[in-house]
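Bumping my old thread because nobody answered last time. Still need a sequence for this structure:
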């Protein structure tokens, strides 16, 4: 049962506690929901993180290759 309206910017666990007039079970329920949400999204985050890591490593290796070719050219011209 909602007893009070709280601003939408109120943090998750605190908002459940305040909306129900101080019922601790609402705060615990919101904590459980938060854990479920994090567990559901975490695998997708990991996949995205691995993709970005591969992209960064590829860009870094291409920069290194470009720097090596510039260094080789300047050494050969000397």
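Sorry it took so long. Here it is:
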């Amino acid at each position: 049962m909602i007893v009070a309206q709280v601003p939408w910017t109120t943090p998750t666990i605190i908002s459940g506690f305040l909306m129900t007039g101080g019922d601790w079970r609402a705060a615990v329920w919101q904590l459980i929901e938060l854990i479920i949400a994090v567990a559901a999204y975490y695998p997708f985050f990991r996949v995205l993180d691995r993709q970005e890591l591969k992209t960064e490593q590829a860009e870094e290796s291409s920069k290194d290759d470009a720097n090596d070719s510039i260094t080789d050219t300047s050494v050969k011209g000397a």
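The longest helix spans residues 24-77. Let me know if any region looks off to you.
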